[in-house]
From TrEMBL:
It is an enzyme of class 3 (hydrolase). Gene3D superfamilies: Phosphoglycerate mutase-like. GO terms for cellular component: cytosol. This is Fructose-2,6-bisphosphatase TIGAR. InterPro entries: His_Pase_superF_clade-1, His_PPase_superfam, PG/BPGM_mutase_AS, Phosphoglycerate_Mutase. Keywords: Hydrolase.
Length: 233
């Protein structure tokens, strides 16, 4: 069994977002002043989370957002960001293509590392997530020697765009039958993320790379870093 965490964050606000104008991938608009503040706030919220991989689309608004997030990190400030054009705004099947390649990467790396073998104890990756994601705590408790469940093989941060995220999450729900929290319905799951909304998923491969993974949605579009609230969807 191989498990990894996937944290997906939408870029911060741009002038076009504020004016409710669709940008698409053809407009490389930078963050607004509010957008930079949102990115910094997301970074403060995630500053103790230990990520092993960071991906971002290659457009300016996502680059600036991921920089703002990592700049506040206490544990992975110097982690190399991989910029990928497949994380741009929605193109049919682009979300699936990137996710499939990501899964192959994590499975390959996990297979090369004995500490992620069956029965491995819980690790700092899961602990750091459980500290700030309330619905992630049950996942963390499963990761111990007594339960036989492995710790997380990786913790991945992806910074992308609202339309891309909607396409990716639709793939999770319709093709991979993603399980949802009891507080979240399908309509909310398929809504567009607010700027710097944070979503967390646990991806689980039971029998290697030949079988589709199971996915658990821990939370959707978390905005605690923006409004100071505690509501998790």
């Amino acid at each position: 069994m191989t498990r990894f965490a996937l944290t997906v964050v939408r870029h911060g606000e741009t002038r076009f977002n504020k004016e409710k104008i669709i940008q698409g991938q053809g407009i490389d608009e930078p963050l607004s002043e509010t957008g930079f503040k949102q990115a910094a706030a997301a970074g403060m919220f995630l500053n103790n989370v230990k990520f092993t991989h960071v991906f971002s689309s290659d457009l300016m608004r996502t680059k600036q957002t991921v920089h703002g997030i990592l700049e506040k990190s206490k544990v992975c400030k110097d982690l190399t960001v991989k910029y990928d054009s497949r994380l741009r705004e929605r193109v049919k099947m682009r979300g699936k293509d990137f996710f499939d390649i990501l899964c192959q990467l994590i499975l390959q790396e996990a297979g090369q590392n004995e500490q992620f073998s069956q029965g491995a104890p819980s690790n700092c990756l899961e602990t750091s997530l459980a500290e700030i994601f309330p619905l992630g705590k049950p996942c963390a408790s499963e990761s111990n020697a007594d339960s036989g469940a492995p710790g997380l093989a990786a913790s991945v941060l992806v910074v992308s765009h609202g339309a891309y995220m909607k396409s990716l999450f639709n793939y999770f729900l319709t093709d991979l039958k993603c399980s949802l929290p009891s507080t979240l319905n399908k309509c909310e799951f398929m809504s567009v993320s607010p700027n710097t909304g944070i979503s967390l998923f646990i991806v689980n491969f039971e029998n290697g790379r030949e079988v589709k993974p199971t996915i658990q949605c821990v939370c959707m579009y978390l905005q605690d870093h923006l409004n100071g609230g505690t509501e998790t969807r």
